[in-house]
Amino acid sequence: MTKIEIKNLTFGFNIREQTLFENISLTMDTNWKLGLIGRNGRGKTTFLKLLQGEYPYDGKIERQVAFTYFPQKINDKQQLTYYLLQELSAFEDWKLKKELNLLHLNPDILWRSFDSLSGGEQTKVLLAVLFADEFNFPLIDEPTNHLDLLARKQVAHYLQEKRKGFIVVSHDRSFVNSIVDHVLALEKKQVVLSQGNYAIYEEQKNMRDSFEEEENVKLKKEIGRLKKTSSEKAQWAHGREKDKYGSPSKLGSGAVYDTGFIGARAARTMKRSKTLVKRMEKETAAKEKLLKNIEKNESLKMNFKPSHHELLLKAENLQLFFENKPLFAPVNFELRRGERLLLKGRNGAGKSSLVKYLLNDFKGTAKGNIIKPQVLKYSYVRQDYEDNKGTLQQFAKRYQLDYTDLANNLHKLGVERDAFETPIEKMSMGQKKRVELAKSLAASAELFIWDEPLNYLDVFNQEQLEELIKTVKPTMLIVEHDDAFIKNIVTKSVILC
């Protein structure tokens, strides 16, 4: 049984930034199938890089295994896949072919250039070579980004059947839930290691959060009572002090002796009052420690303007062609106001091409009919958004967006305010994706067209979007492969095959 032991790990990129990890100690077993989860920016990829010794840190990381990392760095994508894989790892051909078969790939794929493979095929090939290496421990970072629903299920089954342990980072809840037996959660103020899958962790987390919420309510009531008692005692003591210097006529006979008694009593009461205040302050400090680890999902805003048209899209025997080759068989579908239509199909089936055709941006040819209102305001989340550039202020002006709406949604999605002055082209991939999504949410639209909106978003962002869509009930056309998201928000679907 091989262990990975972490002792008093502390790490931050620089003095100005918040420390990502502080005095973290834990032990992991290399036989575990461990899911590493947490909000974007919590340090999941950084944690994997720390395990590999890529950053200096305080503390100790003790291990008896070497690590291999997915996705591997590719230098020349135009090479034949076989030769490219040889540069990444030493493997026996039969073991690699075995892994390819388990991933439902024909080994002939090795003799195609890597850049000719689909995103899903590239992912599977890189996973195959990762597990063809029997000696090193796999660290798998976001394997589902380019996988369709079928491919995700295939990869999930592949990882389920592995006897070998690994650490995997993924924001696909169903995927993680089906493959892991332990969870390491990078929470708001602590790191939690638990046995079981993601659903068990989530149940335990909800119980902990509920307990803290209940304790907080009790403590607020207690503090309110203490404040009231302290205030009443202080007012009484202050009033008695004033009585000492009142007129003899009000105090009556023997006033000289009574003032001493009143003063002593007032002093005792004031002392008790101060003791209560100190107790109250101590309880308040304890209160501030509560709820420190509860993740709050702030509500997003969507600028949906329902169309007066009942029917927004209708396809009649629609078929697309590229270089005279059909992308899919003729399809028929309708999208009515308030519906959320999912385009389903394997990678390469033509889902994104159909979206581009509807937006008059398809370079191929088409047969059949598409019926839609002559004027239809839409908002689009693209898969490729590398042309987003400039500051957020410039970006909002270019797309005629309300900057306040854009910035508020972006902040609620987890982008810190200090990143708002960073040019978009210099942001991380996760931040760029949130800019593209916030742009769509801020745009006034009758129809929202989202092409794989969840890539690079964490579980909490996904829950924010689900809650928003359930509340607003917008009309949507969606391409997405996350099973949980699909079940929660889609009202109908059409399959491209």
Q: What features would you describe in this structure?
A:
Keywords: ATP-binding, Nucleotide-binding. One of its GO terms (molecular function) is ATP binding. This is Abc superfamily atp binding cassette transporter, abc protein. With 497 residues, the protein is α/β, with parallel strands linked by helices. The chain has three domains: 199 residues, P-loop containing nucleotide triphosphate hydrolases (Rossmann fold, 3-Layer(aba) Sandwich); 85 residues; 185 residues, P-loop containing nucleotide triphosphate hydrolases (Rossmann fold). Helix content is 41%, strand content 21%. The chain has 15 helices and 18 strands. The chain has a six-stranded mixed sheet, sandwiched between helices. Strands 15-16-17-13-18 form a five-stranded parallel sheet, with helices on both faces. Helix 3 crosses helix 4, helix 7 packs antiparallel against helix 9 and helix 12 crosses helix 13. The protein is globular, with a radius of gyration of 30 Å. The two termini are 47 Å apart. About 2% of the residues have low confidence.
